[in-house]
């Protein structure tokens, strides 16, 4: 919230994630216009802001309520205007100036001197002032003192009557106006000052909003619409004359002279309206370029300005305002750095640090002890700040973090504050991950997508001013390698040695994160750039997680590292864990004069200059502040808020401060006494005696002022939210809450749409002074600055588990978008709530009302997005992915959590795009202690598939869908419930028209596994009888319990002495033993271990169908198929150490290594992976039939496999006597021709029968003519032959060998190169019929291309770069153009359609477009390995290998090849696939399906998504390269 009375130090005017607009109008003259804007304009603009800019939009209309008694007063309205000015990201003001000026407003307070001046003026004129003196009371508790009119309560208004109260206020206002005009007449008051008593609310609000802002605010953030009705009759006049015959009461002002005086002083409504419209607004237009839109409507003297004309104006205003306001919003977009990228934990904690430090009002002596600890240069122990609740530990540490730079002027420290209690996720892994990432960024190393920039000296966040050498901490590095720290583990700033990039793996285990943190702390900090870690609130973390976090901190601390921790003295477990981890920490820092260093300041302190290396930690007990300081603090807060107390009230305040010595209590006390007036009767019971009772008293006051339901539900939603709520979200939730909304239904109407007025929410938030704003993932949200508000709210409003569950469920409904898009929510109406005439005493009625909440997609997408990235990917809805999982879990809606969220592709994509892969992994792993979800196996497969891809997904999150699809498809039979996940991927691809579809998935190269790790080495192991639980004793004194069904650690217990566990004895109530008779056992088969090794352990799996074995000195687990004796798979346990043991459970195989690594495979996944078809060795060739239903593959062995593309399985084998060298299919799809050894086989494709076999051939290649009548066997050393496919009859022999030979489209010539010439040999005679030769110019033909559309022509490329067209029938030659010399270095004249692939070099492919004589070049990811054009020349497919130097990572996902398909018409990439194994061959079929053969014998096929639009014809080509100059 923005600065309000008494809270300037609480609120910060920073950028917002919301466009908040205040609507100024005359409520009596704008009802139709405001309703039209509310219903037609603002909802659409809100959706535009959300989907296009990632912003929310709220409009504060102070007169939205139909009850004038609920309208805010002038002071509140000014606070709301200022709040909109400070917190709106874009425009903040919208004003509607109509024809009517509006009545003046009774002042809420008048300073004493001015009030007495007005009274005296009336008394001199003989006007009775008793009514003013009775209505206004003197208030001494304001600065300066004033007279104020107490606000009547609703009960008082009901007793007195609404109309009577309005008449009284009108008479009082006339008295003020009379007195002010008399003062102006007598020269006692300026006309401008007197105008304040005559100005309407419209005029006053406009002048306040536009007169106090900067020129930029006025010109770019405000809109004013003026509507003038010309020739309209005059309205109500000031001081209207009495009816004839009525007498004026004695002591009341005479209306006629008063009216004349007002007219004379130009203070009438007409004069004031003219000054507003004709002077004030035009002046701002000229000086500040205020956008003012004026409209004039001529008054119809016959029909007047009736409802029809007003509605017409409202419609025109709606159209104009929608366009103007949208233009202002789009012209001032917010900073999008955090919204587009991953959440900025460094900036968020830095902002929290600055916010909390502003609450440091009392100087604490402990500050000097912290300073003394930090200035020491040789200490290696941490500092612990301990204190009770509400003693100010967090505020003290935040203040000290802000002061560190001034304390260390000769050093450039990197300061990392972390506030556990205010963090969105303080479990051990996210906490340590955040620290590692921020440390690396603080020292200039890119641990994340963007290195953190340098901070200014006053920043409390991470800071760096120069780069340090980078350390190789890549989790994918060679397992035998170690970080190269060099001779000096702390190089100075001049050291410019290059280290590999530090990449953050979000799936690191806790021990790996501990190792990484230790390496970072040992490497980066230096004497000139020390590191200061401030960890606040470790005691607020779950008790089971506190020891894990503390144990991950190095003990003793590395040099030049300072660690400050805060814990509560009432929670000794965290403090004891710190003492155990840092021994000998019972004594505070010595303060003697011997062997110490004095640190001068307001309170000096002595610190130990040379503590023993690694000995203990310093302990600072936070004492209570002195009463004098707390009294001064309260006085200072009162003065800042313009308040004070009387001497008698001060005595009660002093007594209360003596009863409770907490700093936070003093701050709460200020809120209570700010409500006192000088007439308040204060007793000892007037002030609560503790923090929680003070908070409860404040909540009582809030309920009396704003209503119990609005307050209770608002605070409940704010308290149960995970990260906080925005104002717009809070209003949406309250509007969807039946308990709140029922109070806004009055009378007999049954509204179809209804919302809680935004102004009611804003007024409540103005009074909630202990709410603050912070940034969470780029969004400004409200949060409690003190956790005790959550505790009191929880006890007061959420004490019942049922109510808490209902609140969480309502928030889950909201963030899932259940009631969005016009879905009306039923509201149960009873007699007590309204609509009494329609409901009997015993019944209730459901009224369906559209609450108009905002929609909640995972991605905000819009065709009008301001950046291409938003248009393509969309802007992540961080609010949904942060809040929805939390509320689904807390409301125990497990089915929705599992099926609707955890198994949702869009949720996974949003989490990955948002940089929250760690959180996604945590959700997939499941919460410890929560009920088991319904489908843990599917969740486990997603988890095990996702983890190995984590490194790649950080740099390429858009590849998530394709990566998951290719790795999940082989297991759909085992996990059919994942078909919905795959279906989402397919729907996304079809909707976007991009990406390659998976037609045939290759055989899996690995089996997904779930891996977890103990914190230390395993020293003892025992398994429960039923195999459900495993107990791991470790050398650090910890026993971890794993649930083998969900593959997760469920509990942990520790030995306080941290001695190694040597044995775990499991006591179970029941056990059972079965004896088996082994007399009938017989040997089935025997298996040999790899040469030179021996088996050490073996188990059977899948009912004896598979045999798993461990061999000595080998970390892999070999899988053998018992039926064939073939080794079909190898399983990687993910550790470079030998396997300790291998266990077979009911459905899992579990591997345990000595270093505590536990790897679990699903037995069915192993069986499914080994079933996948693949040839015995690498695929060398693939041919596809013309229909595209079948294809054939060879691997250089004697067998050719025939595949059914529909089923994805081989259904035919063609056996040959020798290894297969070449495959050809006849164009009519009747024959399969195979060259094997010295024989040529011709097979009938449909029957699989061998038609004939041609033996003794010396052919090196075979061709089939386009008409499918003849075969051609090409021989380099013997005769080449043309023979009939039907009967192998020889047609002719060809004496010459033609290189790169091809058959002409009409099946008449064999065309190929011979000794530099291009020959056309007749297929009937075998003689050379035509010759293309450039002997006269000594040019050799290096490549040629035949044109299927023009069979008489051949395009020829000569060695010199000349390109010719040769008409074969007439033997005419035409030189067309000259290619650049750079393209002649090994041309690869692959051609199709109108495109010729000339060259593949490094990461570029160069093609030539024959239709337009243009060169085309396209880039791919890495070095090109293979490239292929489709037959018609629409697409080019290539396989490339990314450069390791480019991505700086050696992980398996980064190292594999990439298949890329590019559309040649415009050069656009239509799809990309990360291949999971090593490719060997590539082919694009006529049906535009890309086939990839792999070295392990498997084949994959991928469809091109937009291929259908090209199948009807070639279409028109456009080029994306430069034109070649034709000589």
Walk me through the topology:
Layout: E1 18-25, H1 31-53, E2 56-60, H2 74-87, E3 93-97, E4 109-111, H3 112-124, H4 130-135, E5 137-139, E6 146-148, H5 154-160, H6 162-185, H7 191-195, H8 201-211, H9 215-220, E7 222-230, H10 255-264, H11 269-288, E8 292-298, H12 307-331, H13 337-340, H14 345-357, H15 366-375, E9 383-387, H16 393-407, E10 414-419, H17 428-442, H18 510-523, E11 531-536, H19 546-551, E12 561-568, H20 572-581, E13 596-599, E14 605-608, E15 618-621, H21 627-640, H22 647-659, H23 663-673, H24 691-706, H25 708-720, H26 727-735, H27 738-741, H28 758-767, E16 771-776, E17 779-784, H29 787-797, H30 801-815, E18 825-829, E19 845-849, E20 859-860, H31 868-872, E21 875-876, H32 878-890, H33 894-902, H34 905-913, H35 917-925, H36 936-946, H37 950-955, H38 960-968, H39 979-992, E22 997-1000, E23 1009-1013, E24 1018-1023, E25 1029-1034, E26 1038-1043, E27 1048-1054, E28 1095-1101, E29 1106-1111, E30 1117-1121, E31 1126-1131, E32 1141-1144, E33 1148-1152, E34 1157-1162, H40 1163-1171, E35 1181-1184, E36 1190-1194, E37 1199-1204, E38 1209-1215, E39 1220-1225, E40 1231-1236, ...
Parallel strand pairs: 1-2, 1-3, 3-7, 7-8, 9-12, 9-15, 10-11, 11-12
Antiparallel strand pairs: 4-6, 5-6, 13-14, 16-17, 18-19, 20-21, 22-65, 23-34, 24-25, 25-26, 26-27, 28-29, 29-30, 30-31, 32-33, 33-34, 35-36, 36-37, 37-38, 39-40, 40-41, 41-42, 43-44, 44-45, 45-46, 47-48, 48-49, 49-50, 51-52, 52-53, 53-54, 55-56, 56-57, 57-58, 59-60, 60-61, 61-62, 63-64, 64-65
Helix pairs in contact: 1-12, 2-8, 3-6, 14-16, 15-16, 17-18, 21-23, 23-24, 24-25, 24-29, 25-29, 25-30, 30-32
């Amino acid at each position: 919230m923005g600065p309000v009375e008494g809270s300037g130090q609480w609120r910060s005017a920073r950028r917002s994630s919301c466009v908040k607009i205040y609507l100024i109008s005359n409520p009596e003259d704008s009802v139709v216009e405001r309703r039209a804007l509310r219903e037609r304009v603002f909802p659409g603009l809100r959706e535009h802001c959300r989907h296009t800019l990632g912003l929310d939009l709220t409009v504060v209309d102070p007169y939205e309520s139909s009850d004038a008694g609920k309208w805010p007063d002038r002071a509140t309205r000014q606070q709301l205007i200022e709040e909109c000015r400070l917190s709106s990201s874009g425009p903040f003001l919208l004003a509607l100036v109509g024809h009517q000026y509006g009545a003046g407003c009774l002042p809420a307070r008048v300073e004493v001197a001015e009030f007495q001046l007005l009274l005296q003026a009336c008394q001199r004129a003989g006007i009775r002032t008793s009514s003013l003196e009775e209505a206004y009371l003197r208030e001494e508790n304001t600065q300066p003192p004033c007279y104020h009119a107490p606000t009547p309560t609703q009960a008082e208004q009901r007793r007195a009557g609404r109309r009577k109260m309005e008449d009284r206020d009108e008479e009082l206002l006339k008295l003020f106006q009379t007195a002010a005009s008399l003062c102006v007449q007598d020269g006692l008051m300026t006309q401008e000052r007197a105008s304040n008593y005559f100005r309407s609310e419209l005029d006053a609000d406009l002048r306040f909003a536009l007169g106090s802002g900067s020129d930029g605010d006025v010109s770019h953030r405000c809109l004013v619409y003026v509507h003038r009705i010309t020739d309209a009759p005059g309205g109500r006049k000031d001081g209207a004359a009495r009816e004839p015959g009525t007498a004026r009461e004695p002591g009341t002002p005479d209306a006629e002279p008063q009216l004349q005086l007002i007219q004379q002083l130009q203070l009438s409504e007409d004069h004031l309206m003219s000054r507003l419209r004709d002077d004030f607004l035009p002046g701002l237009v000229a000086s500040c370029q205020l956008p003012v839109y004026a409209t004039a409507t001529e008054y119809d003297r016959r029909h007047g300005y009736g409802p029809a004309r007003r509605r017409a104006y409202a419609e025109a205003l709606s159209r104009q305002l929608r366009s103007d306001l949208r233009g202002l919003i789009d012209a001032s977009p917010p900073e999008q750095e955090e919204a587009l990228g991953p959440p900025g934990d460094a900036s968020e904690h830095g902002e929290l640090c600055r916010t909390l430090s502003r609450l440091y009002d009392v100087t604490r002596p402990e500050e000097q002890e912290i300073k003394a600890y930090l200035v020491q240069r040789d200490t290696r122990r941490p500092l612990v700040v301990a204190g009770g609740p509400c003693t100010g530990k967090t505020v003290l540490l935040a203040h000290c973090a802000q002061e560190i730079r001034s304390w260390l002027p000769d050093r450039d420290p990197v300061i990392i504050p972390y506030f556990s209690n205010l963090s969105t996720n303080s479990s051990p892994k996210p906490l340590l991950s955040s620290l590692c990432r921020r440390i690396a960024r603080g020292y200039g190393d890119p641990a994340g997508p963007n290195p953190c920039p340098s901070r200014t000296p006053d920043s409390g966040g991470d800071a760096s001013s120069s780069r340090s050498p980078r350390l190789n901490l890549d989790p994918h590095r060679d397992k035998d390698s170690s970080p190269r720290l060099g001779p000096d583990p702390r190089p100075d700033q001049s050291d410019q040695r290059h280290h590999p990039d530090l990449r953050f793996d979000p799936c690191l285990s806790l021990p790996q994160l501990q190792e990484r943190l230790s390496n970072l702390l040992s490497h980066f900090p230096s004497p000139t750039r020390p590191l200061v870690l401030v960890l606040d609130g470790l005691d607020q973390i779950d008790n089971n997680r506190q020891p894990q976090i503390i144990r991950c901190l190095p003990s003793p601390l590395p040099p030049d590292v300072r660690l400050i921790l805060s814990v509560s003295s009432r929670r000794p477990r965290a403090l004891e864990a710190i003492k155990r981890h840092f021994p000998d920490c019972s004594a505070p820092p010595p303060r003697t004069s011997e062997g110490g260093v004095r640190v001068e300041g307001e309170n000096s302190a002595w610190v130990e200059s040379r503590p023993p290396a690694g000995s203990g930690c310093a302990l600072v007990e936070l004492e209570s502040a002195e009463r004098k300081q707390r009294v001064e603090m309260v006085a200072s807060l009162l003065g800042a808020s313009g308040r004070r107390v009387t001497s008698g009230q001060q005595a009660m305040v002093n007594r209360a401060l003596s009863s409770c010595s907490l700093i936070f209590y003093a701050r709460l006390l200020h809120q209570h006494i700010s409500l006192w007036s000088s007439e308040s009767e204060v007793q000892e019971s007037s002030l609560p005696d503790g923090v929680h009772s003070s908070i409860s008293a404040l909540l009582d006051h809030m309920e009396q002022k704003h209503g119990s339901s609005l307050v209770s539900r608002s605070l409940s939603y704010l308290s149960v939210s995970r990260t906080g709520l925005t104002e717009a979200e809070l209003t949406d939730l309250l509007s969807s809450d039946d308990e709140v909304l029922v109070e806004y239904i009055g009378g007999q109407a049954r509204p179809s749409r209804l919302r809680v007025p935004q102004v009611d929410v804003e007024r409540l938030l103005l009074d909630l002074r202990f709410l603050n704003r912070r940034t969470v993932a780029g969004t400004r949200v409200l949060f409690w600055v003190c956790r005790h508000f959550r505790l009191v709210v929880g006890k007061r409003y959420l004490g019942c588990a049922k109510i808490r569950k209902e609140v969480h469920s309502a928030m889950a409904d909201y963030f899932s978008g259940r009631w969005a898009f016009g879905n009306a929510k039923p509201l149960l109406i009873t007699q007590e709530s309204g609509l009494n005439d329609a409901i009997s005493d015993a019944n209730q009625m459901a009224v369906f009302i559209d609450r108009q909440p905002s929609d909640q997609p995972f991605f905000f997408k819009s065709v009008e997005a301001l950046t291409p990235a938003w248009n393509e990917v969309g802007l992540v809805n961080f609010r949904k992915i942060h809040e929805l999982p939390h509320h689904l879990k807390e409301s125990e809606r497990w089915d929705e959590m599992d099926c609707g969220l955890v198994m949702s592709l869009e949720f996974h994509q949003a989490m990955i795009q948002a940089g929250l892969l760690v959180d996604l992994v945590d959700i997939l792993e499941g919460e410890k202690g929560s009920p088991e979800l319904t489908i843990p196996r599917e969740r486990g497969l997603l988890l095990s598939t996702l983890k190995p891809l984590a490194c790649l997904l950080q740099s390429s999150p858009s590849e998530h869908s394709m990566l998951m699809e290719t790795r999940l498809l082989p297991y759909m039979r085992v996990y059919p419930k994942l078909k919905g996940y795959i279906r989402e991927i397919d729907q996304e691809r079809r909707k976007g028209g991009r990406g390659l579809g998976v037609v045939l998935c290759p055989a899996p190269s690995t089996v997904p596994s779930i891996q977890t790790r103990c914190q230390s080495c395993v020293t003892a192991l025992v398994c429960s009888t039923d195999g459900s639980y495993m107990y791991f004793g470790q050398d650090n004194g910890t026993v971890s319990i794993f649930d083998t069904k969900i593959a997760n650690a469920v509990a942990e217990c520790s030995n306080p002495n941290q001695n190694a566990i040597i044995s775990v004895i499991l006591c179970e109530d029941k056990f059972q033993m079965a004896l088996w008779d082994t007399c009938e056992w017989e040997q089935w088969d025997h298996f040999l271990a790899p040469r030179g090794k021996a088996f050490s352990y073996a188990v059977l799996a899948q009912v004896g169908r598979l045999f798993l074995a461990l061999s000595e000195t080998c970390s892999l687990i070999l899988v053998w198929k018992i039926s064939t004796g073939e080794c079909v798979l190898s399983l990687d346990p993910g550790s470079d150490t030998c396997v300790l043991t291998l266990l077979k459970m009911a459905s899992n195989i579990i591997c345990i290594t000595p270093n505590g690594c536990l790897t679990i495979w699903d037995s069915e996944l192993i069986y499914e992976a080994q079933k996948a078809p693949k040839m015995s060795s690498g695929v060398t060739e693939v041919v596809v039939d013309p229909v595209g239903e079948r294809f054939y593959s060879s691997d250089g062995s004697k067998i050719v496999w025939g595949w059914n593309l529909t089923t994805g399985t081989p259904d035919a084998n063609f056996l040959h006597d020798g290894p297969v060298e070449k495959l050809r299919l006849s164009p009519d799809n009747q024959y399969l021709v195979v060259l094997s050894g010295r024989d040529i086989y011709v097979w009938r494709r449909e029957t699989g029968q061998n038609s004939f076999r041609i033996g003794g051939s010396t052919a090196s290649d075979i061709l089939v003519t386009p008409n499918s009548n003849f075969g051609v066997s090409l021989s380099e050393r013997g005769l080449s032959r043309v023979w009939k496919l039907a009967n192998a009859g020889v047609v002719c022999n060809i004496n010459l060998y033609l290189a790169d030979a091809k058959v002409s489209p009409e099946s008449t010539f064999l065309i190929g190169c011979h000794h530099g010439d291009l020959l056309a040999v007749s297929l009937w005679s075998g003689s050379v019929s035509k010759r293309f030769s450039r002997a006269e110019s000594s040019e050799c033909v290096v490549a040629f291309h035949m044109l299927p559309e023009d069979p008489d022509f051949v395009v020829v490329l000569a060695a010199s770069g000349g390109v010719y067209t040769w008409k074969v029938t007439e033997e005419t030659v035409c030189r067309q153009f000259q290619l650049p010399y750079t393209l002649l270095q090994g041309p690869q004249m692959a051609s199709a359609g109108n495109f010729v692939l000339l060259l593949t070099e490094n990461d570029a492919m160069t093609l030539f477009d024959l239709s337009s004589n243009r060169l085309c070049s396209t880039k791919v990811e890495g070095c090109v390995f293979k490239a292929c054009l489709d037959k018609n020349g629409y697409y080019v497919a290539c396989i490339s290998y990314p450069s390791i130097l480019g991505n700086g990572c050696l992980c398996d996902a980064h190292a594999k090849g990439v298949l890329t398909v590019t559309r040649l018409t415009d050069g656009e990439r239509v799809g990309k696939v990360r291949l999971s194994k090593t490719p060997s061959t590539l082919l694009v079929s006529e049906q535009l399906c890309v086939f990839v053969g792999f070295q392990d014998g498997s084949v994959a096929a991928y469809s091109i998504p937009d291929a259908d639009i090209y199948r009807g014809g070639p279409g028109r080509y456009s080029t994306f390269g430069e034109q070649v100059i034709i000589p």
